[in-house]
Design goal:
The structure holds 3 protein chains of 3 kinds.
Chain A lengths: L5 E4 L1 H13 L3 E8 L2 E6 L10 E6 L2 E6 L16 H4 L3 E10 L2 E8 L5 E6 L1 H14 L7 H9 L1 E5 L10 H4 L15 E6 L6 E6 L2 H7 L5 E2 L2 H17 L6 H9 L5 H7 L7 H5 L6 E7 L5 E7 L9 E2 L2 E2 L4 H20 L9 H5 L6 H10 L8 E3 L5
Parallel strand pairs in A: 2-8, 8-9, 9-10
Antiparallel strand pairs in A: 1-11, 1-12, 2-3, 4-5, 6-7, 6-14, 10-11, 13-14, 15-16
Chain B lengths: L1 E3 L11 E12 L2 E8 L13 E6 L3 E6 L10 E6 L3 H7 L6 E8 L12 E7 L3 H13 L7 E7 L8 H9 L3 E6 L9 E2 L16 E6 L2 H13 L7 E4 L15 E2 L2 E2 H4 L2 E3 L2 H8 L4
Chain C lengths: L4 H7 L8 H8 L2 E6 L4 E3 L7 E7 L2 E5 L7 E6 L4 E2 L13 E4 L3 E7 H10 L1 H26 L10
Helix pairs in contact in C: 1-2, 3-4
The chains are: A alpha+beta, B alpha/beta, C alpha+beta.
Chain lengths: 388, 283, 156
């Protein structure tokens, strides 16, 4: 098959895909329902996937419902993201041992199987591109990250059922993905549920994808299949009514660092850091050195959050000592200074930060509030005088 | 998960091993360590203003300015102030201790292109350490037509770092002035903040480049003092500091608004934008 | 009730005892302002646009340094004035001034005041004398504070 070919399979074809991935030694990670949420876990057949599950999301709210719907992808996103696969929450960087006055350093070799992702969302694909720029596109690439990314097989599932917290349409990251190799997937699926049992329109995005596609079976794509895909995406886009003015937000936040809204959001924010944990692009992480019982030293790298007081610690204390400055840092970084640092936005419009914030802070509402009084400063109540 | 010695250590968070070959106590809480690689010649060239990440094995890693001049043969000097667990451990490191080194990182003072400039160097407290290599380089470089001015501020006379270097630089042609906030009875020098020294030196603002390092308050006021004397904003360079954990743009800790100190700094050309950035509270 | 702003200026110690027309002249540049606790009257680096004559509440003159709580330079209260940088170029504040409690003040517009002083040298001289007296007083006090007279003994 050539790269521009697309075809249609049924659920058995997806199982064929999963089998082909397993036969090639991939560790396949896909969505499952566990602990009341759609989470990422190793899967081996379509029986593991969330058939009939639907999510209901709102600021500070996440619920799953189940019905007899045969669809596998009738939900939007869960709290996890592909970030965990490529940038583990905690990893050993090196180990040092000393004999006499000689110190020897060793690095762990990664010998785990390459990862295949099934059912990543277009916003998550965009999140991976953002992290690619941070960890593989800078002056000092992270070789571990780069190897994990290059060896990963990515099957993206376009969105037919966005959540109320989604705003990918504003960030140009969904609900669908473009054709072609630049889009960054090996295979793209669109679940078509219009007639009885779901069928899956499959598009090929890479040589690797083409090679595996041959084992999926399937039938050629008909015009009505393409039309069905378009209808799914148009309906999904229509349903997304949460908006962010992406063209203006960079300048807006850079020019409103003293806006009274930051005080307002700080009075609600708990600085819990949930948003940074669920965000597919938050990458802050530190290193900690520890001693081991056998006299060795280990350096670990692990996720940090800019909501931690320790994040901005200089020797006299934290630079960002208040929740006010830490919330401002997080949001201005995500939507504004990320452009200065990496040449793109840090936000992919997945809405996770809105759903998983325990007090329901909605970044799109915060941005809109600042925009509504762009340039506001704390107001002095004034009376009298004409300054003549 | 296998550990191996055979493969080259590719992770950029892995240090090379160096040994302390000399240790000099500068003041009560400031120590200069001279480091040499445990094997082989020093693998890196550096420029004044850059920093290394030093690992005290078992304690942690911290960003420390390189305080020796480049091109000088021999060990690389790092001046450390004891302000926390890691720096305490480095300051206490005896000769022979193995220290991890990653670097050099960051932007430099740009001393190469200053042959025809008057260079006015203003250092507050430990801020003289990141400038030391630059000053030696400028003072020792033959064929420079511009003068070198070294203005140093310290809290008290016994907190003046590198007093021998100050004397040496003066002998070798630099104009050196020192001021303290709180004198003792033996002090005959200037009293007051370092900005008070600026009008006492006779430099040509039109052909001056100024290098400034110290606490941020001191740098903000020094810049104002320089500007008041006619030095263009863009001719002033400052060295900024934030929480530094990786030095390579991965960890996100050293952000200052749009800037990553490890990558875009620590040395910055001053500008209106930079001034607005460091004038903001808790940025 | 609209107070006569000129009368409020005349009541303030910085301008008290001056002829009525001087107070009116300054009043013409002035507005009555109220500032909430924690808000900044002066922000370092921002354009210096007003002289503030404090009538109610205290203000802390501060400098911020990353990693430290703001360092308080001085505490200014009712009957005193805050904000001098409007007098000389580049007309930008050198420090922050933060309301420690609800503050009531007369805000005198700097452009207005400077242009009136330029146009009327006699007024300008009276203004400068008053301002200089306060600044001298503050300088003396600051110098003595720097002596750290309560501090540890200096080695002999």
């Amino acid at each position: 098959m050539d790269l521009s070919a697309s075809f249609v399979v049924d659920r058995a074809g997806l199982d064929g895909l999963l089998g082909a991935l397993e036969a090639r030694g991939y560790r396949t990670i896909g969505p499952v329902v566990r602990d009341g949420a759609v989470v990422q876990q190793q899967v081996s057949s379509t029986d593991d996937l969330p058939q009939g599950w639907h999510d209901e999301q709102a600021p500070g709210h996440y619920r799953l419902h189940h019905d007899s719907d045969p669809s596998l992808f009738g939900w939007a996103v869960g709290p996890g993201s592909p970030k965990s696969e490529f940038y583990p929450a905690r990893s050993l960087v090196w180990r040092a041992t000393s004999t006499g006055d000689v110190v020897t350093l060793e690095q762990p070799r990664e010998d785990s199987a390459p990862v295949a992702l099934i059912g990543s969302r277009p916003c998550e694909l965009a999140g991976m591109r953002v992290l690619d720029r941070v960890f593989a596109g800078g002056e000092v690439p992270d070789p571990g990250y780069r190897d994990r990314r290059e060896s990963a097989f990515v099957v993206v599932a376009e969105c037919g059922t966005p959540a109320a917290t989604c705003f990918c349409t504003s960030m140009d990251t969904g609900p669908g993905v473009a054709d072609g190799a630049e889009a960054g997937y090996d295979l793209a699926l669109t679940e078509l549920t219009s007639a009885g049992e779901p069928r899956y329109l499959v598009r090929i995005g890479s040589e690797r994808g083409a090679e595996i596609a041959e084992e999926m079976g399937g039938s050629p794509c008909q015009p009505q299949d393409l039309a069905a895909r378009n209808a799914v995406l148009e309906e999904a886009a229509r349903r997304i009514d949460r908006k962010l003015d992406a063209a203006n937000v960079r300048r807006l936040l850079a020019g409103n660092l003293g806006h009274p809204r930051w005080d307002d959001v700080a009075s609600r924010c708990l600085a819990c850091g949930n948003c940074t944990l669920v965000c597919p692009t938050c990458f802050c992480g530190g290193v900690t050195d520890t001693t081991t019982v056998d006299g060795g030293v280990e350096r670990h790298r692990q996720w940090n959050s800019c909501f931690d007081l320790a994040h901005s610690l200089v020797h006299t204390g934290p630079v960002r000592a208040t929740t006010w400055s830490r919330y401002r840092q997080w949001l201005t970084h995500k939507l504004s200074t990320w452009h200065d640092q990496f040449g793109m936005s840090g936000c992919v419009g997945c809405g996770r930060c809105i759903t998983w914030c325990p007090v329901g802070i909605d970044i799109t509402a915060e941005v809109a509030a600042i925009a509504a009084s762009d340039g506001a400063v704390p107001v002095y109540i004034e009376s009298g005088g004409d300054r003549s | 998960m296998l550990l191996t010695e055979a493969e080259p250590l590719s992770n950029p968070l892995t240090p090379a091993t160096y040994r302390v070959v000399d240790r000099r106590v500068e003041t009560g809480d400031v120590v200069t360590l001279s480091l040499e690689p445990t094997s082989g010649p020093c693998p890196f060239a550096f420029k004044p203003g850059q920093f290394n990440m030093l690992t005290s094995f078992g304690v942690g890693e911290v960003a420390i300015s390189i305080s020796s001049a480049p091109g000088a043969p021999g060990p690389v000097e790092h001046t450390v102030r004891d302000v926390g667990a890691i720096t305490h451990s480095l300051c206490a490191a005896a000769v022979g201790t193995v220290i991890g080194v990653r670097g050099p990182f960051g932007t430099d003072w740009g001393v190469d292109g200053l042959d025809d400039k008057d260079v006015v160097i203003v250092a507050g407290g430990i801020g003289l350490a990141p400038l030391r290599g630059a000053i030696s380089y400028l003072v020792d470089k033959p064929g420079r037509s511009g003068r070198v001015y070294v203005l140093v501020g310290a809290r008290e006379p016994d907190q003046i770092t590198f007093p021998d270097d100050l004397k040496r630089w003066e002998r070798d042609g630099a104009i050196v002035k020192v001021t303290v906030d709180v004198p003792d009875s033996r002090w005959w020098g200037a009293i007051g903040v370092v900005t008070t020294l600026l009008p006492t030196v006779d430099f040509d603002p039109a052909r001056t480049v100024s290098l400034v390092c110290g606490p941020e308050i001191m740098m903000r006021f020094t810049v104002r003092g320089l500007v008041d004397l006619g030095v263009p904003l863009g001719a002033i360079r400052v060295s900024l500091e934030r929480n530094m954990q990786c030095g390579i743009g991965w960890c996100g800790h050293c952000q200052l608004g749009p800037l990553l100190i490890c990558r875009d700094g620590p040395v910055f050309d001053y500008s209106q934008a930079l001034e607005e950035l460091i004038s903001e509270r808790e940025r | 009730m609209t107070e006569n702003i000129g009368e409020l200026v005349a009541e303030h110690p910085l301008f008290s005892g001056l002829p009525v027309d001087i107070a009116e002249l300054v009043g013409g540049c002035s507005q009555n302002v109220a500032i909430a606790t924690g808000q900044l009257l002066l922000e370092e680096g921002e354009p210096a646009r007003s002289l503030f004559l404090l009538r109610r509440g205290h203000v802390a003159l501060e400098v911020h340094e990353p990693g430290r709580v703001p360092l308080v330079i001085d505490r200014i209260g009712p009957g005193q004035a805050v904000g001098w940088s409007w007098m000389f170029p580049p007309y930008r504040w050198h420090f922050d001034a933060r309301a420690l409690e609800p503050v009531g003040a007369i805000s005198v517009d700097a452009d207005c005041l400077r242009s009136k002083a330029e146009a009327d040298p006699a007024f300008g001289y009276l203004l400068m004398k008053r301002l200089a007296a306060v600044m001298l007083d503050r300088l003396q006090a600051t110098r003595i504070r720097l002596l750290d007279v309560y501090g540890r003994d200096v080695a002999h």
